[in-house]
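User: Show me a protein chain along with its predicted structure.
Assistant: Here is one chain, sequence first, then structure tokens.
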Amino acid sequence: MLPPNKSFRKQKVRQAVNIDDTQVSDVLTEIGTENTGETDARLMQALQKLEPEELQLVEMRFFEKRPFKEISEILGINEAAVKARLYRLLERMKQMI
């Protein structure tokens, strides 16, 4: 049993995502940003700042090309909630880029 006064730092887990130029272009198009070398780099930085759950959502939709219905089944939430989360996330990413 751990002493009550001890605290532990949350471990950071790094996740690798392999994406190609087409997938980058799809995300940037959805965000409404022109695809340039500079925006590609900014997109990568924005992806690194996402929480694991947010990155999973972007990954399933744009990199794995899963439909909203399938994503909703995987996450156990309704399709409208998936769309709302994704579009709020894309808006936040747009601000980062």
